[in-house]
Protein backbone atom coordinates (compact mmCIF):
# COMPACT_ATOMS: atom_id res chain seq x y z
CA UNK A 1 0.00 0.00 0.00
CA UNK A 2 1.29 3.48 -0.86
CA UNK A 3 0.53 5.76 2.05
CA UNK A 4 -0.72 9.30 1.57
CA UNK A 5 -0.39 9.85 5.30
CA UNK A 6 1.94 7.86 7.49
CA UNK A 7 2.25 8.02 11.27
CA UNK A 8 4.93 6.37 13.39
CA UNK A 9 5.32 5.94 17.12
CA UNK A 10 2.68 8.53 17.99
CA UNK A 11 2.47 9.31 21.69
CA UNK A 12 0.10 11.87 23.14
CA UNK A 13 -0.24 12.93 26.76
CA UNK A 14 -2.92 15.14 28.29
CA UNK A 15 -0.90 16.66 31.10
CA UNK A 16 0.85 13.69 32.72
CA UNK A 17 -1.60 11.11 31.45
CA UNK A 18 -0.54 9.38 28.26
CA UNK A 19 -3.53 8.59 26.03
CA UNK A 20 -1.69 7.23 22.97
CA UNK A 21 1.19 4.84 23.50
CA UNK A 22 2.98 4.63 20.16
CA UNK A 23 0.64 4.35 17.20
CA UNK A 24 1.92 3.40 13.73
CA UNK A 25 -0.70 3.76 11.01
CA UNK A 26 -0.55 4.33 7.25
CA UNK A 27 -3.49 5.67 5.29
CA UNK A 28 -3.96 5.03 1.58
CA UNK A 29 -5.49 7.47 -0.87
CA UNK A 30 -8.84 6.60 -2.47
CA UNK A 31 -9.89 4.49 0.47
CA UNK A 32 -11.84 4.56 3.70
CA UNK A 33 -10.12 3.59 6.94
CA UNK A 34 -12.21 3.06 10.07
CA UNK A 35 -10.85 3.55 13.58
CA UNK A 36 -12.77 1.38 16.02
CA UNK A 37 -12.46 0.47 19.68
CA UNK A 38 -14.22 0.92 23.01
CA UNK A 39 -14.97 4.31 24.50
CA UNK A 40 -11.87 6.12 25.74
CA UNK A 41 -9.36 4.02 23.75
CA UNK A 42 -7.99 7.10 21.98
CA UNK A 43 -9.70 7.06 18.57
CA UNK A 44 -10.74 10.73 18.58
CA UNK A 45 -7.46 11.77 20.16
CA UNK A 46 -5.55 10.07 17.37
CA UNK A 47 -7.85 11.48 14.68
CA UNK A 48 -7.38 15.01 16.03
CA UNK A 49 -3.58 14.58 15.85
CA UNK A 50 -3.84 14.22 12.09
CA UNK A 51 -4.75 17.85 11.46
CA UNK A 52 -3.33 19.20 14.70
CA UNK A 53 -6.67 19.85 16.37
CA UNK A 54 -5.10 18.74 19.67
CA UNK A 55 -2.88 21.81 19.47
CA UNK A 56 -5.96 23.68 20.72
CA UNK A 57 -6.04 21.64 23.95
CA UNK A 58 -3.72 23.04 26.65
CA UNK A 59 -1.01 20.87 28.29
CA UNK A 60 -0.97 18.37 25.43
CA UNK A 61 2.33 16.74 24.43
CA UNK A 62 2.60 14.96 21.10
CA UNK A 63 5.60 13.07 19.76
CA UNK A 64 6.14 10.80 16.79
CA UNK A 65 6.22 11.21 13.06
CA UNK A 66 3.37 12.37 10.82
CA UNK A 67 4.35 12.35 7.15
CA UNK A 68 1.91 13.82 4.66
CA UNK A 69 3.06 14.49 1.08
CA UNK A 70 6.61 14.08 2.40
CA UNK A 71 5.94 16.94 4.75
CA UNK A 72 6.04 16.67 8.54
CA UNK A 73 2.65 17.82 9.79
CA UNK A 74 4.24 18.96 13.07
CA UNK A 75 7.11 20.91 11.48
CA UNK A 76 7.29 24.42 12.95
CA UNK A 77 6.85 25.84 9.44
CA UNK A 78 3.48 24.13 8.87
CA UNK A 79 0.72 26.58 8.07
CA UNK A 80 -2.21 25.33 10.17
CA UNK A 81 -4.90 27.02 8.10
CA UNK A 82 -3.51 25.40 4.96
CA UNK A 83 -3.08 22.05 6.73
CA UNK A 84 -6.70 22.00 7.92
CA UNK A 85 -7.81 22.81 4.39
CA UNK A 86 -5.85 19.82 3.09
CA UNK A 87 -6.93 17.61 5.98
CA UNK A 88 -10.48 18.67 6.81
CA UNK A 89 -12.67 17.41 9.63
CA UNK A 90 -16.36 16.59 10.09
CA UNK A 91 -17.64 16.30 13.65
CA UNK A 92 -20.25 14.22 15.44
CA UNK A 93 -22.72 17.09 15.72
CA UNK A 94 -23.38 18.83 12.42
CA UNK A 95 -21.97 22.35 12.84
CA UNK A 96 -22.95 24.54 9.91
CA UNK A 97 -22.41 28.27 10.37
CA UNK A 98 -25.65 30.18 11.00
CA UNK A 99 -25.57 31.54 7.46
CA UNK A 100 -27.06 30.49 4.15
CA UNK A 101 -26.07 27.22 2.46
CA UNK A 102 -24.26 29.26 -0.20
CA UNK A 103 -22.29 31.22 2.38
CA UNK A 104 -21.37 28.05 4.24
CA UNK A 105 -19.99 26.35 1.16
CA UNK A 106 -18.15 29.44 -0.14
CA UNK A 107 -16.73 30.36 3.28
CA UNK A 108 -13.30 28.77 2.83
CA UNK A 109 -13.03 29.87 -0.77
CA UNK A 110 -13.75 33.50 0.13
CA UNK A 111 -11.21 33.31 2.96
CA UNK A 112 -8.70 32.16 0.35
CA UNK A 113 -9.50 35.28 -1.67
CA UNK A 114 -11.90 33.89 -4.29
CA UNK A 115 -14.60 36.41 -5.12
CA UNK A 116 -15.53 35.66 -8.70
CA UNK A 117 -19.25 34.89 -8.61
CA UNK A 118 -19.21 32.45 -11.51
CA UNK A 119 -16.32 30.49 -9.98
CA UNK A 120 -18.02 30.43 -6.59
CA UNK A 121 -21.32 29.29 -8.15
CA UNK A 122 -19.52 26.44 -9.92
CA UNK A 123 -17.72 25.34 -6.79
CA UNK A 124 -20.92 25.44 -4.72
CA UNK A 125 -22.66 23.19 -7.24
CA UNK A 126 -19.67 20.83 -7.47
CA UNK A 127 -19.25 20.51 -3.71
CA UNK A 128 -22.96 20.09 -2.99
CA UNK A 129 -23.23 17.47 -5.73
CA UNK A 130 -20.21 15.59 -4.38
CA UNK A 131 -21.79 15.67 -0.93
CA UNK A 132 -25.02 14.34 -2.47
CA UNK A 133 -27.13 17.22 -1.17
CA UNK A 134 -27.45 19.38 -4.31
CA UNK A 135 -30.91 18.16 -5.32
CA UNK A 136 -32.26 18.85 -1.84
CA UNK A 137 -30.88 22.40 -1.48
CA UNK A 138 -30.37 23.77 -4.99
CA UNK A 139 -33.60 25.82 -4.85
CA UNK A 140 -32.83 27.06 -1.33
CA UNK A 141 -29.19 28.10 -1.45
CA UNK A 142 -30.03 31.32 0.39
CA UNK A 143 -31.83 29.53 3.20
CA UNK A 144 -30.09 29.28 6.58
CA UNK A 145 -28.13 26.02 6.68
CA UNK A 146 -29.29 25.45 10.26
CA UNK A 147 -32.90 25.17 9.14
CA UNK A 148 -32.23 21.83 7.40
CA UNK A 149 -32.46 18.39 9.00
CA UNK A 150 -29.48 16.99 10.93
CA UNK A 151 -28.55 14.65 8.08
CA UNK A 152 -28.81 17.46 5.53
CA UNK A 153 -26.74 19.75 7.78
CA UNK A 154 -24.05 17.07 7.99
CA UNK A 155 -23.91 16.78 4.20
CA UNK A 156 -23.76 20.61 3.93
CA UNK A 157 -20.78 20.46 6.32
CA UNK A 158 -19.17 17.83 4.09
CA UNK A 159 -19.79 20.10 1.08
CA UNK A 160 -18.23 23.04 2.95
CA UNK A 161 -15.12 20.94 3.45
CA UNK A 162 -15.07 19.65 -0.14
CA UNK A 163 -15.31 23.18 -1.54
CA UNK A 164 -11.69 23.83 -0.61
CA UNK A 165 -10.56 20.55 -2.24
CA UNK A 166 -8.95 18.69 0.64
CA UNK A 167 -6.81 15.57 0.21
CA UNK A 168 -7.97 13.87 3.39
CA UNK A 169 -11.35 13.89 5.12
CA UNK A 170 -11.44 13.07 8.84
CA UNK A 171 -14.82 12.18 10.32
CA UNK A 172 -15.42 11.73 14.03
CA UNK A 173 -18.57 9.63 14.45
CA UNK A 174 -20.35 11.63 11.74
CA UNK A 175 -23.57 9.63 11.87
CA UNK A 176 -23.99 8.89 15.56
CA UNK A 177 -26.31 11.88 16.03
CA UNK A 178 -28.39 11.00 12.97
CA UNK A 179 -31.41 8.82 12.22
CA UNK A 180 -30.86 5.56 10.26
CA UNK A 181 -31.96 7.00 6.89
CA UNK A 182 -29.68 10.03 7.20
CA UNK A 183 -26.85 7.75 8.35
CA UNK A 184 -27.32 5.54 5.30
CA UNK A 185 -27.23 8.63 3.05
CA UNK A 186 -23.94 9.75 4.62
CA UNK A 187 -22.49 6.25 4.18
CA UNK A 188 -23.48 6.25 0.50
CA UNK A 189 -21.93 9.71 0.12
CA UNK A 190 -18.66 8.54 1.71
CA UNK A 191 -18.52 5.46 -0.51
CA UNK A 192 -18.73 7.72 -3.57
CA UNK A 193 -16.21 10.21 -2.18
CA UNK A 194 -13.56 7.58 -1.56
CA UNK A 195 -12.91 7.44 -5.30
CA UNK A 196 -11.34 10.88 -4.96
CA UNK A 197 -10.25 11.24 -1.35
CA UNK A 198 -8.54 9.54 1.54
CA UNK A 199 -11.22 9.14 4.22
CA UNK A 200 -10.56 8.29 7.87
CA UNK A 201 -13.59 7.72 10.08
CA UNK A 202 -13.98 7.09 13.79
CA UNK A 203 -17.04 4.98 14.39
CA UNK A 204 -18.63 3.04 17.23
CA UNK A 205 -20.81 1.30 14.73
CA UNK A 206 -19.14 -1.96 13.75
CA UNK A 207 -21.69 -2.63 11.01
CA UNK A 208 -20.88 0.76 9.56
CA UNK A 209 -17.16 -0.02 9.56
CA UNK A 210 -17.77 -3.38 7.91
CA UNK A 211 -20.04 -1.80 5.26
CA UNK A 212 -17.87 1.11 4.19
CA UNK A 213 -14.25 0.75 5.31
CA UNK A 214 -11.54 -0.80 3.15
CA UNK A 215 -9.25 -1.06 6.16
CA UNK A 216 -9.96 -1.02 9.87
CA UNK A 217 -7.73 -0.18 12.82
CA UNK A 218 -8.74 -1.56 16.22
CA UNK A 219 -7.50 0.42 19.22
CA UNK A 220 -7.57 -0.47 22.90
CA UNK A 221 -6.34 1.57 25.87
CA UNK A 222 -4.29 3.91 23.69
CA UNK A 223 -2.65 1.10 21.73
CA UNK A 224 -3.16 -0.07 18.18
CA UNK A 225 -4.03 -3.75 18.50
CA UNK A 226 -4.67 -4.70 14.89
CA UNK A 227 -4.84 -3.04 11.49
CA UNK A 228 -5.92 -4.90 8.39
CA UNK A 229 -8.30 -5.10 5.48
CA UNK A 230 -11.77 -4.84 6.97
CA UNK A 231 -12.91 -8.01 5.19
CA UNK A 232 -10.06 -9.91 6.82
CA UNK A 233 -10.25 -8.38 10.28
CA UNK A 234 -13.98 -8.93 10.59
CA UNK A 235 -13.77 -12.57 9.53
CA UNK A 236 -10.35 -13.70 10.75
CA UNK A 237 -8.93 -11.33 13.33
CA UNK A 238 -5.42 -12.22 14.43
CA UNK A 239 -5.55 -10.87 17.98
CA UNK A 240 -7.78 -12.28 20.72
CA UNK A 241 -8.70 -8.76 21.90
CA UNK A 242 -9.92 -7.90 18.40
CA UNK A 243 -11.98 -11.05 18.23
CA UNK A 244 -13.49 -10.42 21.68
CA UNK A 245 -14.35 -6.82 20.78
CA UNK A 246 -15.91 -7.74 17.44
CA UNK A 247 -17.92 -10.45 19.20
CA UNK A 248 -19.27 -7.97 21.73
CA UNK A 249 -17.43 -9.40 24.73
CA UNK A 250 -16.50 -5.85 25.82
CA UNK A 251 -16.86 -2.26 24.68
N1 LIG B 1 -9.18 17.14 26.37
C1 LIG B 1 -8.81 16.11 27.12
N2 LIG B 1 -8.17 16.30 28.30
C2 LIG B 1 -7.79 15.26 29.07
N3 LIG B 1 -8.02 13.97 28.77
C3 LIG B 1 -8.67 13.72 27.62
C4 LIG B 1 -9.10 14.76 26.73
N4 LIG B 1 -9.72 14.19 25.66
C5 LIG B 1 -9.67 12.86 25.88
N5 LIG B 1 -9.05 12.57 27.03
C6 LIG B 1 -8.78 11.23 27.59
O1 LIG B 1 -7.99 10.52 26.63
C7 LIG B 1 -8.44 9.18 26.52
C8 LIG B 1 -8.85 8.89 25.08
O2 LIG B 1 -10.03 9.64 24.81
P1 LIG B 1 -10.67 9.72 23.35
O3 LIG B 1 -11.82 10.68 23.41
O4 LIG B 1 -9.62 9.98 22.36
O5 LIG B 1 -11.20 8.23 23.17
P2 LIG B 1 -12.25 7.66 22.13
O6 LIG B 1 -11.80 6.28 21.81
O7 LIG B 1 -12.41 8.59 20.99
O8 LIG B 1 -13.55 7.62 23.01
P3 LIG B 1 -15.10 7.77 22.59
O9 LIG B 1 -15.35 6.61 21.69
O10 LIG B 1 -15.83 7.69 23.87
O11 LIG B 1 -15.24 9.09 21.89
C9 LIG B 1 -9.56 9.01 27.54
O12 LIG B 1 -9.02 8.51 28.72
C10 LIG B 1 -10.06 10.42 27.73
O13 LIG B 1 -10.61 10.58 29.02
From the structure above, extract its key features.
251 residues, alpha/beta, Rossmann fold, 6-stranded mixed β-sheet, 4-stranded antiparallel β-sheet, 10 helices, binds adenosine-5'-triphosphate, ATP hydrolysis activity, phosphate transport
Describe the structure.
The protein has 251 residues and is α/β, with parallel strands linked by helices. The protein has one domain (3-247): Rossmann fold. Helix content is 36%, strand content 27%. A six-stranded mixed beta sheet has the order 6-7-8-3-9-10, with helices on both faces. β9 and β10 form a beta hairpin. α3 packs across α4. The two termini are 30 Å apart. 40% of the residues are buried. The model has no long low-confidence stretch (mean pLDDT 96). Adenosine-5'-triphosphate (ATP) is lined by residues 14, 19, 37, 39-45, 57, 204. GO terms for molecular function: ATP binding; ATP hydrolysis activity; phosphate transmembrane transporter activity. It holds the Pfam family ABC_tran.
Amino acid sequence: MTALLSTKDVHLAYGKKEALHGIDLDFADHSITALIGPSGCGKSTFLRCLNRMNDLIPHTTITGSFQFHEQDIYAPTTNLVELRKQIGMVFQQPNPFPFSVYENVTYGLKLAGHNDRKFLDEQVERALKQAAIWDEVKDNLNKNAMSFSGGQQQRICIARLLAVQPDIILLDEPTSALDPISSAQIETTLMALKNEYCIIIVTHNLQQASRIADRTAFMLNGNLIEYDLTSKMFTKPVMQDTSDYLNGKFG
